[in-house]
Specification:
The chain has 285 residues and is α+β, with helices and mostly antiparallel strands. The protein is built from 7 helices and 11 strands.
Length: 285
């Protein structure tokens, strides 16, 4: 454990994290400690989430490089604990410059999924004109339409450029449950696209109350309707809703390797704010 001034800094950060965890109802009880005698040498906290997923948080190895081996052991133990708890997919988000951390998570059995680019923009003062396209109908979510959303997501995964390795790691109902839990679920912010009555895409949005943000959770289209202007149409809908509901900011995250999507978002006024490397491990199915 660090001593002196460094210990005080760690203590202050810990208090801040605990305050945050309480404010958002974060479950912080699944923590694995790697001990050397009576001293904590490394740790990994895993937080259960909707859709049978878990997010892993480990020791900051850039600050505590002496904790590399102990942290790897703690990550491995946390993954096994999550597996036994019924978690399907474990995830971790790391700084792109944190090569040591990425290596440790890889040694613990996790794989690099993608580098995610986080983007945002202020909503326009005046809502942009939103017009549909011939043959396309947008329907909000309801239990009676659940099968349409299920089909739309499955179809959108075909030949996708957005985190393609993630496809098939969870069943679609787990995916939908995870998307619903991003913020307070509002079915009016979810739309399925029907082309002549057949589900061909979806737009899933969520409010993030802490920032008064409208987050683009997922936008997916099936291969036959890509390149027909539907992405631009849906982004106009996003900005129209953000403006009409007076959100402070519109946000999203995208696979940095998904060049067409990144270009679309930039054309819509979004700018990059930060990046994270996503690490994943499928635990069971």
């Amino acid at each position: 454990m660090p001593g002196g001034k460094r210990a005080a800094e760690v203590e202050e950060r810990l208090k801040g994290f605990l305050t945050y965890a309480r404010s958002v109802g974060l479950n912080i009880h699944r923590q694995v400690l790697a001990m050397e005698g009576n001293v904590v040498a490394g740790m990994c906290l895993w937080v259960p989430a909707a859709g049978r997923t878990a997010m892993l948080f480990g020791t900051s190895l850039s600050e505590f490089p002496e904790s590399v081996v102990a942290t790897r052991l703690a990550i491995q133990a946390a993954i096994e604990d999550a597996r036994q708890a019924g978690v399907v997919l474990a995830q971790a988000m790391l700084e792109p410059a944190d090569a040591v951390g990425q290596n440790v998570y890889a040694e613990a059995g996790m794989s690099q999924l993608a580098t995610l680019t986080y983007m945002e923009r202020q909503p326009p003062v005046q809502p942009p004109m939103f017009e549909g396209l011939p043959g396309i109908t947008l329907i909000p979510y309801s239990e009676s339409r659940h099968a349409d959303f299920h089909r739309a997501i499955v179809e959108s995964y075909r030949d996708t450029l957005d985190c393609p390795a993630l496809s098939g790691m969870r069943n679609v109902d787990d995916v939908i449950a995870g998307h619903k839990a991003v913020g307070p679920f509002d079915p009016e912010l979810w739309s399925v696209l029907l082309l002549d009555g057949v589900a061909v895409g979806c737009l899933l949005l969520s409010e993030i109350p802490a920032r008064r943000a409208l987050e683009l959770v997922y936008l997916g289209l099936s291969p036959p309707v890509r390149g027909r202007g539907l992405g631009r149409m849906l982004m106009r809908r996003v900005l129209s809703i953000a403006s009409q509901r007076h959100f402070d900011v519109a946000t999203l995250a995208v696979d940095a390797a998904n060049t067409p999507a990144v270009k679309l978002y930039r054309r819509c006024g979004y700018v990059s704010t930060t990046q994270r490397v996503a690490m994943v491990k499928q635990l069971t199915y």
